[in-house]
Amino acid sequence: MSYTLRKRTKEDVLEFITWTYDGDYSFYDNNIQEEKVQGFLQSIDTDRYFSIINDEGELMGNCEFFNVGEDGEEIIAVGVQMKPVLTGKGNGLKFIKTIIEQGRERIGYTHLELAVVDFNQRAIRVYEQAGFKRKGEFQNCIRGREYRFIIMEKDW
């Protein structure tokens, strides 16, 4: 099975916002933050926000590329989300490689960063297998709780 990035549609977003995850991974649930839902709705048919589909056209996940640079510097970062029923089943490396490769074709970056919450060890392992290295970390308060995030980067 292969994956393809395409522009987000309203139908995709309406599915994204129903996604919920088990256990600690419920941190990634899309329906618990109104600003996350609104962000999804505003990202329909934009240039750096994508849905990921399989060969049959089924929705497999989403990703977005955004600038995290300061003072006019452009540093492209990626946010990634896999459909809940696919997580933990060995699909991650192919999924992230598709995002990286097709994202580079569309956006043209030579440096890419991402942030992942530190308890998500399976995602960290996948990112490391894809060639990302740890760059740093930061704390962020989300829904009243402090989380530690690992910043990872990859160069070409």
From TrEMBL:
One of its GO terms (molecular function) is acyltransferase activity, transferring groups other than amino-acyl groups. The keyword Hydrolase does not apply. Gene3D superfamilies: 3.40.630.30. Residues 3-156 form the N-acetyltransferase domain. It comes from Rossellomorea vietnamensis. It comes from the Bacteria. Pfam families: Acetyltransf_1. SUPFAM superfamilies: Acyl-CoA N-acyltransferases (Nat). This is GNAT family N-acetyltransferase. The keyword Cytoplasm does not apply. Keywords: Transferase.
